[in-house]
Structure formats: C-alpha cells, structure tokens
C-alpha cells in the first residue's frame, strides 16, 4: 500500500490518506496549503526502516524532481492552489508513506 502522511498543521492539506495500486500503475497525491507568502511544496517518501527520502519540490509553478526519482511534480505551490505528486511505474519498493510540506522560498541574490 501507498500512504500519504497526515499533516500536523491545519494549514497544509494532503489527500488521499491511503491508496492501493497494482504494480506498473501510477499514484497521484495532492497537496495544498493556506499560508500567506509560502510558495514552495516539498515532497518526501518514508519507507519502513529507511531514512526519509527527498523526492523533489514545486517552486511557485515549476516542479523539480530529484534526479533518478520516478515522479512528476505539477500544479502550483501558491496559497490555495493544488500541487500534485505522481509516482510513476509503482513497484513493491513504492510502498511507503509520502509527505508534503509547505515553506517560504527565500533566495539571496
């Protein structure tokens, strides 16, 4: 089974809570937030007995998966918008808890 972790914040929302798929299928997990000025969504995977794995992020409207990770990140990271993580070509190793987090993107120029 593929699970999405529950958020401790009432301002970050992730759905669905639980999903069941067959190998080879794709799973879609949704994340949104209601926090002013936050414009980045981070995605993580936690498999049993393993460290948390960073999958990638959405910066405003630009998705950036980590190299070598079979995911797509689409949508928007702005307040009240929807960001989706698509985990492609599911296998036994895809069984995990997936988390999203919202944050403010600060950049120095």
TrEMBL record:
It holds the Pfam family V-set. One of its GO terms (biological process) is cell surface receptor signaling pathway. The keyword Ribosomal protein does not apply. Residues 10-109 form the Ig-like domain. It comes from the Eukaryota. Keywords: Immunity, Signal. Gene3D superfamilies: Immunoglobulins. Signal peptide: none annotated. GO terms for cellular component: plasma membrane. The keyword tRNA processing does not apply. This is Ig-like domain-containing protein. The lineage of its organism: Eukaryota, Metazoa, Chordata, Craniata, Vertebrata.
């Amino acid at each position: 089974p593929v699970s999405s972790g529950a958020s401790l914040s009432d301002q970050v929302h992730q759905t669905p809570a639980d999903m069941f798929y067959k190998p080879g299928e794709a799973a879609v997990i949704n994340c949104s937030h209601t926090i002013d000025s936050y414009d980045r969504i981070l995605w993580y995977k936690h498999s049993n007995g393993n460290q948390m794995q960073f999958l990638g992020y959405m910066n405003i409207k630009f998705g950036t998966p980590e190299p070598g990770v079979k995911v797509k990140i689409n949508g928007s990271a702005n307040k009240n918008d929807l960001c989706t993580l698509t985990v492609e070509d599911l296998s036994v190793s895809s069984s995990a808890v997936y988390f999203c987090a919202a944050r403010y993107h600060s950049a120095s120029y």
